[in-house]
Every structure is written in structure tokens, then in C-alpha cells.
Write a structure and sequence with these properties.
- By secondary structure, this protein is α+β, with helices and mostly antiparallel strands.
- The protein has one domain.
- It is built from three helices and two strands; from the N terminus they run βαβαα.
- A two-stranded parallel ribbon has the order 1-2.
- α1 links the parallel β1 and β2.
- The longest helix is centred in the C-terminal third of the chain and has 13 residues.
Length: 80
Amino acid sequence: MPRPAASNGKPTIPASRSRSRRDQHHAARRHLWPFTDGDPGEVYENIVFQVVNDDGGHFSPLEVPETIIRDIRATFRSLR
């Protein structure tokens, strides 16, 4: 099943971005995963939540699970 997309080809489904300020791994993978490159609005049409957290690192969900849980809840709260 194709993903819903706007006329510009960007997905229109709600998207969320949560990353750690200390995660430097994303900079080296910009060409593989464009969502991490600068403005996620360049890739996704409908960003409903985004945050840069001060805690955690590359493995934030393992290091500080309460942070990722908080961000997931905030994403879906905005969709109610």
C-alpha cells in the first residue's frame, strides 16, 4: 500500500522527531537517513512534535527510557 503523500512527494502522515543533543552519530549518517539532516520539514510534510533532549546519547531509549516515553506521549497527545 503506498504511503499518503502531498503533491511535493513528502509523506503527509503525522511525524515526530526526538533526539539527544549529545548524539553525534546522526551527523555522519545524513546521506543515509535524511530525517536527521537539518530541518525535518524537508522530508516530512506534517511534523506534529519535535524536541532535542539534553539527556541521553546515541542509545537514549536504553539510557533514559522515561525521556522517549515522555516524547511518544507528547506526540500522541497532540493528535487527540
